[in-house]
Amino acid sequence: MRNRYEEAFQKAADKYCRGARIAAREGIIPYKSEKGAWIPSPFDGNGWWTGGFYPAILWQIYAADKPEWCLIEARRAESLLTEEFRIFSHLNHDVGFMYLLSCGADHKLTGDKQAALDTLHAASLLMGRFNPAGYIRAWNQPAQAGFAIIDCMMNLSLLYWASRKTGDPRFAHAADVHAHTALREFLRPDGSVSHIIEFDPETGARVREHPGQGYALGSQWSRGQAWGLYGFTLAYLNTEKPEYLDAAKRIAANFMAHIRPDGLTDCDFCQPDTEERIDNIAGAIAACGLMELEKATGDEAYRNAALRLVDGLLEHCCDWTDQRLGVLTHCTASYHDDGAGRHTNIVYGDYFLMEALAKLNGTDLMPWL
Ligand code: GLY
Asked: Among the options 106, 118, 151, 268, which is catalytic?
């Protein structure tokens, strides 16, 4: 008999099987589900940072069960993603999310050589964003040459992967320089992290913090906290450097202190009490990071916190009907920008829910390493 996590993973896989037929027919990479339809990214189309999560979901299903349709559909999405190499102009530091989770996962599971080259191509693009003054540049606008963001801790895995793959330590050196800057400049004394820090691109000196996608300057955007938690955990798993583990533990302690009694996650841990604004993506990411932290430390408190988060999502915020194509509800792209999605379904929420379930079921392909 299946346990509740195996059952949830299977129901999500069945739903994605139905949804994949629609995405393939429309020739799109889904970004979110609305009124029973898939919406491609309204921002930069297939070049938007979220493009890798749909094939990543399919590779998690493939890792569990090997259904052929997943491989075919993931490769269709990958061919759209690799076309973006030629367009190039809107690719940014999120090539880690985009290509490690798609082509990198493909190579890990199937040994496909072109998928490895495409992943290496993405790593080279990320290397090209490294400023030796101390950080990886986040975005492309000329006025943002000095911007680095906490989310980038997740993209560092692509660089560590490339050093292992090629035997060339340059990629890992750049990742470590960025991670040490993040330790120094993003991690706050209370274990929370800033979203955006602007540096002087000539000297690397700190200029200022920006509020980013959170509630306010100095507040705690919960998805940023989750990126920091899982990102430093991954940096530790990639390098075994104790300072990264220490940072992950500090961020985890702060995150765990803010898990709501119902297991859901507020969009910002400093948002006003009167505001009911949830971002379940943050909870799903944190659950993944906490489970990896439990494996790294043997401390069961991390796994128990992860279970509170996953149980909360399964109990309150999974839609198994066909009224929408995705699964996880109450995902919020950004605290103040409702245009990008508030209390909706967004594909990366589904990805991290699936990864968390796969970890609990022992089938996780662990595409980050
Ligand atoms: N990495 C962008 C976001 O979390 O919205």
From this structure: 151
